[in-house]
């Protein structure tokens, strides 16, 4: 006669506990249970209970509906490319770091520009169309934000550099000969001598000397000679 195995029953005594860190309930001991106290699962039983599922058939891609078609009157890809080429000059998308000049004579800031360059170009746009007056933009002391109704060459360059945190006050063109670091920068290159100062920013020339012709200080970078100027750039730009 087979006897049924009787599993031992372990009775757990209730042990009163107090809050963390207080009371005198004494030590609490864990009950030791010999392992394994439950038999491991039989893999064959699991396989029979859960047969391998066959992969569901892939649903066909839905057919393109009329709603997916371009809206009536939307420009074609060729038209968009032509508009970008007109705005930026040259083949669209060939140089993401290249700025452009809009119809108002202001610089279009490249999307790749770092935050200091964005601040510099916004400030340059603020004074790009203001008149030229010798000494303009030099009427404020260091540490103050200065604005003027007209700017000379170094005054306009200084204003843009100050907006990006590179100057505390206006500098004359001779002082800009030793500004920053020597050589051209990736984004901004300053050209200065004892009588004139201008800069090339993201491929555009910011130069008072062209304002009387075009109405803006933003010019094509290759429209003048660069001989006779000290070449400097702001650190990091």
Fold topology:
Elements: H1 43-49, H2 77-88, E1 100-101, E2 107-108, H3 115-127, H4 153-163, H5 173-176, E3 181-182, E4 188-192, E5 197-201, E6 204-206, H6 211-214, E7 218-220, E8 230-233
Antiparallel strand pairs: 1-2, 3-8, 4-5, 4-8, 5-6, 6-7
Helix pairs in contact: 3-4
How would you portray this structure in words?
- This protein is of the alpha+beta class.
- The chain has a domain at 114-233: endopeptidase domain like (from Nostoc punctiforme) (endopeptidase fold (from Nostoc punctiforme)), CATH 3.90.1720.
- 22% of the residues lie in helices and 11% in strands.
- The protein has six helices and eight strands; from the N terminus they run ααββαααββββαββ.
- It has helices at residues 43-49, 77-88, 115-127, 153-163, 173-176, 211-214; strands spanning 100-101, 107-108, 181-182, 188-192, 197-201, 204-206, 218-220, 230-233.
- The strands form two sheets. A six-stranded antiparallel beta sheet has the order 3-8-4-5-6-7.
- α3 runs antiparallel to α4.
- It is globular.
- The N and C termini lie far apart (95 Å).
Task: Name the average pLDDT.
Answer: 75
Number of helices: 6
**Based on DSSP secondary structure assignment, what is the total number of beta strands?**
8
The second-level CATH architecture of the domain at 114-233 is Alpha-Beta Complex
Helical fraction equals 10-25%
CATH homologous superfamily heading of the domain at 114-233: endopeptidase domain like (from Nostoc punctiforme)
Stretches where pLDDT is under 50 for at least 5 consecutive residues are 1-40
Q: Mind describing the biggest β-sheet?
A: 6 strands, antiparallel
User: What structural class do helix, strand and pairing data support?
Assistant: alpha+beta
Side by side, the strands of the main sheet go 3-8-4-5-6-7
Indicate the proportion of strand residues. Answer: 5-15%
